[in-house]
Amino acid sequence: MKAMQIFSNADIVTHDDRFRGYVVVENGLISEVGAGSAPEKGHDLGGDYLLPGLIEIHTDHLEAHVMPRPKVEWNPASAVLAYDAQIAASGITTVFDSLRIGIDEHEIKAGVSARVAEFAGLIAEAAAAGHLRCDHLTHIRCEVPARDVVDELARFLERFPVQLISLMDHTPGQRQFRDLGKYFTYYGGKTGKSDADVREVVERRQNTGAARAGQNRPLIVAMAAEHGIRLASHDDTTLDEVALSQRDGVSVAEFPTTLEAAQASQAAGMATVMGAPNVVRGGSHSGNVAARELADANCLDMLSSDYVPASLLLGAFQLADSPGIGGLPGAIRLVTANPARALGLDDRGMIAVGKRADLIRVTGSAAAPVVRTVWRAGERVA
Fold this sequence. Notes:
Layout: E1 5-13, E2 18-26, E3 29-35, E4 43-44, E5 49-52, E6 54-59, H1 62-66, H2 76-89, E7 92-101, H3 110-113, H4 116-128, E8 135-143, H5 149-159, E9 164-168, H6 180-191, H7 195-227, E10 230-234, H8 239-247, E11 252-254, H9 259-267, E12 271-275, H10 276-281, H11 291-296, E13 302-304, H12 311-318, H13 327-333, H14 337-342, E14 359-363, E15 370-376, E16 379-380
Parallel strand pairs: 1-4, 1-5, 6-7, 7-8, 8-9, 9-10, 10-11, 11-12, 12-13
Antiparallel strand pairs: 1-2, 2-3, 5-14, 14-15, 15-16
Helix pairs in contact: 2-4, 5-7, 8-9
């Protein structure tokens, strides 16, 4: 039986409101939320924010810990623990580990992708041993044109539970890389290849991409349906691509590259996600639509930290002034209640009676919010 905890003198952000007050936690759940003074002495937060723990649905940051430098691999068990600690320190209490399946033979991190089952196993072992700070769920990113994606996904699903599958296609000349100049900059910068070498990669990927994607995508969609796994689109750009996602039963639209695609996705009932780094940087590194443009147009539902865990909280605070967001409560919903609803996590995502006591204490301003303390189910984890 866990002791009762009282958090008082806090700037509390609930689903629809913000006020100075207190929260009572019993047995890992929120039992009382009130304005003003707490009914008895508690842990004085000194006016700091008390927010729901953040929910991250797409981060591939584990790869940066496994391969911190090109062709340099770190001890994988140590990488998992370091990744988990960084995620928790960023205020994230629930994370969907975005593990990639489908090796593009031209990718520099093909070796990391080939070991996805190993990493999933290490995460599961660390969780079972009580070594992880965050609640870890699994998001499989399927590179649809990859030659091995269907077989590898089938093998993975035999061993591990999966909560979300995204349908990715990074063939240059469309979606994220419809601007080939951006692809040359991105891929050449990652690999150090010359323009001539990158041009050869582009030609090879374009020659195989469409045919493989046409064969693989229906099989992946069928496997997701068989296992009851939610589907996400990835980098939809055109109305035809949105229509394909709708036909396939996609419920989450990840990183639409145009305002038109984002609006159509939302109109079709898909929850839209944009990268928090896009918010913080002031735009897309690939030259696509800015996340703030979606926010201002009231067609942004969630944020993802993608490749910078600390961007999730910072991006939310920076969008609080957008006319389409609804102030700080609306901004915090982008990284808590909205992803919880979209992914079926009904027990968390907001400060409300009966919800799991995933909480974070934050100080500072919108320019630099600082995570001071993190609790998961009432237990301090960071």
